[in-house]
Specification:
The structure is a homodimer of 330-residue chains.
Chain A lengths: L1 H12 L3 H13 L1 H11 L7 E6 L6 H14 L4 E7 L7 H10 L8 E7 L6 H15 L4 E6 L4 H7 L4 E6 L8 H8 L4 E4 L7 H14 L9 E3 L8 H18 L1 H29 L2 H10 L4 H19 L1 H10 L2
Parallel strand pairs in A: 1-4, 1-5, 2-3, 2-4, 5-6, 6-7
Helix pairs in contact in A: 1-2, 1-3, 2-3, 2-6, 4-10, 6-7, 11-13, 12-13
Chain lengths: 330, 330
């Protein structure tokens, strides 16, 4: 693996599309390859403008992303796009549709597009997609656009570790959308009402304003923008708002604070996946669960047993893991 | 805490509403109280019919749940209802609305209703709500109805550990709903098209049938039912379908298989929360993240350090945890 990475990493840093694609596949596959790759590329990250785009199905997110990417290209800025679908374990219809729509960008080497969907491993997608953002950042894309399909806690988790979150909605979703808005309100930095040529756009804007006035926010008041992405209307304003937000983050010191929070979330996710993997290696999660089930043991006791097993077994093994840390410490 | 539980547990087993309410609050608060409570009540669980009700906002889930509960009461069966909102950190509008609508059931001691929303602790809601289901089961409710607000991976996680999942949809959601359906398809045991007096009901049924024919399912083919919950139409059929599903689970041996899977999910969730709590106690997650941020250390290395810290520190401490396990082992 190390030999492969020795070859892959320099090519990725030159933004060679095949190297970027290969690196994302390594991240999707997980394991030691992923860890080593992120370790090597992490020092090269921190330059891209990382933007999450989320909102309910049918809001026109992928069209908006497509038009944002085109406009960036007109300015000669490069764009990496990740479309993430936490609701679907398959590479389902929605993502395929996006891909077809975005096809026109494929031949442009200044744009890289990739879809990611859950591959069995529950909960691993937020980590894998964030690692993929790091790769695109390290590869030198000026913008990284992380688009989610659908809306829910898992989508929120996916976009939670980006610099700026654009929440896209459409007029006429009605009262039913209130529940969705409530969950998403606190992470939105920019609101976009897409399909703004439709009836009900003023009401949608008023509803959002009302919700904003009820919720808490710091110095940054999320702007509410109107777009008709399919006709390329309002796209420049969206990019400008994202850039203003980024300037605000930098000037206020909020960017560092946010990135600390992001690091924390990522670290916790890795810890969680690691304890389950270790428990599985040491005692076998399946075996202990089976035993617990037969004896009608409650889940807390079964977890106690697995946790204890890991603690005892890892005491020696862990030395190998801690040493590279010590090397790095000042 | 133990003294409190000595008093609380017998009252909960008698289904005293105030004891049930108090027990759920303990579960929401987390910590050792929650663990001890679940340990004590777990041997009393396994009798209730546990049904999850999920689907997009506006599908009329709470009305359906309300009518199902009324019908159960007419049959002299008791019902515990949990309304879970993973998308909202506040006890928001949606849940409040449900409560008001369900108010008429409140005076009936055969019905217990409780809302649960995320309380800061990300990801803890699926565990807490499942523990609350155990409490209602132990309290002797014939039915436990677990309703989610919204749709997404987190809602899927909440209903993943129930016996039967009812997915509610409505006519006319259009193509946009495809993405949602795809994620939810594999967990549905019964489909309900609510508001079936609306136009488009036949198309919605055809769409669902099509998706079912494309997807994989075992011996149980999820039925597609039509209801107008607000007029109490089709409710008996929903209960009958759930009962048929339950019979199928028992007869086929699938119930045990499912419950093993549920135990596994719960155990893994507890393990994950525990490693983060331990890392926080031993080294301080905040402190290590801060240090990692300053030194531009990648998240995998920061996680390595925390994990190692827990392994070394817990080696002695953990003995106290393992002993009650050993007592219980045969």
């Amino acid at each position: 693996m190390r030999a492969n990475l020795d070859d892959l990493v320099p090519r990725l840093l030159e933004r060679q599309p095949r190297a970027v694609a290969r690196a994302i596949s390594i991240v999707e596959d997980g394991g030691e390859g992923q860890r080593e790759l992120v370790r090597r590329l992490y020092p090269h990250t921190g330059k891209a403008r990382i933007v999450g785009i989320t909102g309910p199905p049918g809001a026109g997110k992928s069209t908006l992303v497509d038009r944002m990417a085109r406009l960036c290209r007109k300015r000669d800025e490069t764009v990496g796009i990740l479309c993430v679908d936490p609701t679907s374990p398959y590479t389902g219809g929605a993502i395929l549709g996006d891909r077809i729509r975005m096809q026109s960008l494929y031949t442009d080497p200044g744009v890289f597009i990739r879809s990611m969907a859950t591959r069995g491993a529950m909960g691993g997608l937020a980590r894998a997609s964030r690692d993929a953002v790091d790769l695109l950042d390290a590869a030198g894309f000026d913008w990284v656009l992380l688009e989610t399909v659908g809306v829910g806690q898992d989508e929120v988790d996916v976009v939670r570790t980006v610099d700026s979150v654009v929440v896209v909605t459409v007029p006429g979703l009605g009262d039913d959308i209130q529940a969705i808005k409530a969950g998403i309100l606190e992470i939105a930095d920019v609101f976009v009402i897409n399909k703004a040529d439709r009836e009900g756009v003023e009401r949608a804007a008023r509803d959002l304003e009302m919700m904003l006035s009820l919720g808490e926010h710091g110095e940054w008041l999320p702007p509410i923008l109107k777009t008709v992405a399919s006709r390329e209307e309002g796209i420049g304003e969206v990019l400008a708002a994202v850039e203003r937000h980024r300037e605000h983050l930098t000037a206020s010191g909020e960017l560092d604070k946010r990135r600390r929070g992001h690091l924390r979330l990522r670290v916790e996710t890795i810890l969680k996946e690691r304890i389950v993997a270790a428990a599985d290696r040491v005692l076998g999660v399946e075996r202990e669960v089976e035993r617990g089930f037969e004896q009608r043991t409650d889940p807390y006791r079964v977890a106690d047993r697995l946790f204890s097993g890991v603690i005892h077994a890892e005491e020696v093994e862990v030395e190998g893991v801690i040493s590279p840390m010590e090397e790095r410490a000042p």
